[in-house]
């Protein structure tokens, strides 16, 4: 078997089976050292990449249509005005969103729950296939190891997102029974003035609703921040008041201590004078006693 054939088999497996199957295959072909070493280096796909690979192998016709529609959109956008371009962009988003949902359903059937974060990566990868020819080749291989992203303008490093360079241009082997053909995906190239105006209005409404949602979220965050800071301010002020009270007590105590210190120092001086007088009296008495013999 060639490395490409082995990879085609491995990347068709359930995600949790990939690593043990890869290592087992490398051991099986250990007599062919170079091939076994190359198999061992095959990278396990990310969850999003595996979902795309699964969809490519289960719904190859849908993927072909998706890529064809992407090409049609790229050709149709040349010479269009801003309103028409927005309509095409929205159509592409609707299409990739619908296809992503199909991919999530397939993955769920395989026992894998696709989170919204993973679904976003899947949709970004499918969008890249519509915008970029090389991304389309990478996806069609069914050997993605990572996700793709494209603006349709800058080039994309697709080689780093596939299992091996030879995968580019390779068409993945299908797995499982193909579902009944889905309705053909089409591009509406031209629209009437009323339709265009309606599209612009719908787009403006969608953007306004999105902006409203973002502003409501920002307002809620700001209110929460204000409430938290107000509570903190009250706490800090209470701590300041307590410190002021303690400072006042300490200042009073310091004044009282200074007064007591003055009295103590006066008493000490008086005691020292009395002690000095007593010493002199003792010395005088001792001399008198010594004189008496």
Number of strands: 0
Tally of individual helices? 9
The percent range for helix content is over 70%
**Rg over alpha carbons:** 42 Å
The biggest sheet, with number of strands, parallel, antiparallel or mixed sense and barrel status, is: none
Question: Beta-sheet strand percentage?
Answer: under 5%
Please, what is the oligomeric state?
A: single chain
H/E element sequence: HHHHHHHHH
Distance between the termini: 133 Å
Shape estimate: elongated
Q: Low-confidence stretches at least 5 residues in length (pLDDT < 50)? A: 177-193
Taking all residues together, what is the mean pLDDT?
Answer: 83
State the secondary-structure class: mainly alpha
